[in-house]
Automatic annotation (TrEMBL), chains A, B:
Residues 12-139 form the Gfo/Idh/MocA-like oxidoreductase N-terminal domain. Residues 152-282 form the GFO/IDH/MocA-like oxidoreductase domain. One of its GO terms (molecular function) is D-xylose 1-dehydrogenase (NADP+) activity. The keyword Oxidoreductase applies. It is an enzyme of class 1 (oxidoreductase). This is D-xylose 1-dehydrogenase (NADP(+), D-xylono-1,5-lactone-forming). Belongs to the Gfo/Idh/MocA family. Keywords: Oxidoreductase.
């Protein structure tokens, strides 16, 4: 038994706000024994779950994920009022994140909010300001950042293993031609739910661009890039093909996403992220959101040395690492996590705002609203 | 002996304006027997070459390429005045294309001008207007378009072999860190010679974007895309890292180029062009300017069928196909070639102008000048 296991694990009691697909993924991950991923210092308790539609829905959800004895609520208000809940995981469609996270913070709860944080950067700023005023923990649940694979890649870059990084190209495109895959009311293409590929898929390539070109910079000298980009708009008015170009003085990041084509059309593990340096390249195999393979090319030319590493997923889907990080922050009294700092969430939301502005994509006022 | 060989080949007498590297490549290609590439209907005669610096330079050039008996001139003015020259190939640095092509057209010669056509779109427009007024043939020497490989790829796309094309991503990046590879006066980075990666390298990925997303459209309905993009600027003020995003209503093309990183770092034939459709993908292996391998993925997913085709280069470097095309136009009395129409050259020059404008890259007035 490892040494760390002798220290009692810090227990965090979660309240799950929303009972849809991602809530189920996350909650099941909370219920996986952390020891299976080598984690002994924190533990997760699924204290409660709340559905906005009915108590039965919440009960059914808890039974389904394997936590039938946890508390079920038929409203979000009741959930966030539960004195035994330490932290709320916001798992609703992103059109609703702002309102739901506000509710939880106002109830005095710490919050982990699914990505994308909100619909626009101003909403995120309001949440951040509120959390800081109330001394509550707040984090955008960009799970990919917390993977051992991501941590390793950031380390490779920081150690200069591919020289100076000059460009990052990242893509997440899934062939789901909306005409045949989604009704116009589906969340992927429905403007009322902030549909489109940028917010849902594009956040992942953007995560790679920023975690390499921005996050690996010393914190005090990180500068937001200038942003341009473009979109094709689907018949419902949301984007189905988007490019975001992030330009720093010496580097450029290109994040792309598309609802019609495949990053990896022949399912052979095509690189979805290329981190290109003066002395080589790091390639991350598709998919950008949950990669398990990294190839490092050291040197350039026929003598370059190519080495691939696998990062197999331990039991669970992979959202548990962000939960572990949040639990450690709560244990240590930290109000935000270094891997996904609030300031960086804002900078990325601003990039998405900018490309939408360039392309004339604005969601209905009801969900762009800053009303608290 | 093939049937076509019985018809006498149409002979075109070339005058080579400029005696540098690309002049040598092109002239040697002119001297390759067209039969080695299956061409019997046209023939090329290297009638003369002109150097702006000295007669000896032109003589040396002609001896070196294997045409010691051709006429040598110590000035461009004498070259374009030679009544035995039908067509001038402009092979000077691109900062000088405008003036040199003007000189040739004004002397009543047909012109093939190396890529990029000129330094800006306005210069190209002046050349086009003049050529049309004088009923002279004019073409930008974008050799890659004339390769059997390019023709095949355009056919695949037109026949819908990968469904509807939604995105083209094309890159030409060569790891030539300018600090160590070039003096600041070198043409690659010298603003006085319109240095930087966009005009020299970026034209190739742009060629792929346009020959797929623009050129395969019916001629009457071709529309110029909206353009955005960005650049990093080198210490000399020219670009060393550039992205051009071309947006049509239903498709996006992304052309990238960089002087620090490699498109194909481990020299394994990494795709430099990805033509992504709803039913598969076409990949062209590096390099974008002279590719010899195409992979077509039909279908999406594990059942997709992947097929690679080689297009080995026949004797010569590969600029002979554009020369053949020009010769056929002269034979047929055509003033421009369908594969590289003048209007399309202008549209692409406008895209490059736009990205330079966005990034504040302007060459010295002497070479941006429209003075005739």
């Amino acid at each position: 038994m490892p040494l760390t296991a002798r220290v009692e694990a810090h227990k965090v009691r979660w309240g799950i706000l929303g009972c849809g697909w991602i809530a189920s993924v996350f909650t099941k991950d909370l219920l996986v024994d952390p020891a299976t991923r080598g984690v002994y210092d924190v533990q997760h308790i699924v204290q409660a779950a709340g559905s906005s539609s009915s108590l039965d829905k919440a009960k059914e959800f808890l039974a389904d994920v394997g936590a039938p004895d946890s508390r079920a609520y038929g409203s979000y208000g009741e959930l966030v009022a539960d004195p035994n809940v330490d932290i709320i995981y916001v798992a609703t469609p992103h059109s609703h994140h702002f309102a739901n996270a506000l509710l939880a913070l106002n109830a005095g709860k710490h919050v982990v909010c699914e990505k994308p944080f909100t619909v626009n950067a101003e909403q995120t700023k309001i949440l951040v300001k509120l959390a800081r005023a109330k001394k509550l923990f707040l984090m955008e649940a960009v799970w990919t950042r917390f993977f051992p694979l991501s941590i390793a890649v950031r380390e490779y870059v920081k150690r200069g293993q591919i020289g100076a990084v000059k460009r990052v190209i990242a893509d997440l495109s899934l062939p789901q031609a909306p005409e045949t895959h989604f009704a116009d009311s589906h969340r992927m293409v429905n403007p009322d739910l902030a549909g489109g590929c940028l917010l849902d898929l594009g956040l992942y390539p953007l995560t790679w661009v920023y975690q390499i070109l921005y996050h690996t910079q010393p914190e005090e000298s990180r500068k937001a890039p200038s942003i341009t980009g473009s979109m094709n708009l689907y018949r419902t008015g949301v984007d189905d093909n988007t490019v975001v170009v992030c330009t720093w003085p010496d580097t450029i990041g290109i994040a792309t996403t598309n609802l019609y084509v495949a990053t990896d059309p022949s399912a052979i593990g095509t690189p979805c992220v290329k981190i290109q340096g003066t002395g080589g390249e790091i390639q991350v195999a598709h998919p950008a959101y949950r990669p398990t393979k990294v190839t490092v090319i050291r040197g350039i030319g026929p003598e370059a040395v190519t080495e691939s590493s696998e990062f197999p997923m331990p039991p669970g889907h992979g959202t548990h690492w962000e939960a572990d990080a949040a639990a450690r922050c709560l244990r240590d009294g930290k109000l935000e996590d270094d891997m996904m700092p609030l300031e960086e969430s804002i900078v990325i939301m601003e990039a998405m705002d900018k490309v939408r502005e360039i392309s004339g994509l604005r969601y209905p006022e009801s969900i762009e609203s800053l009303e608290q």
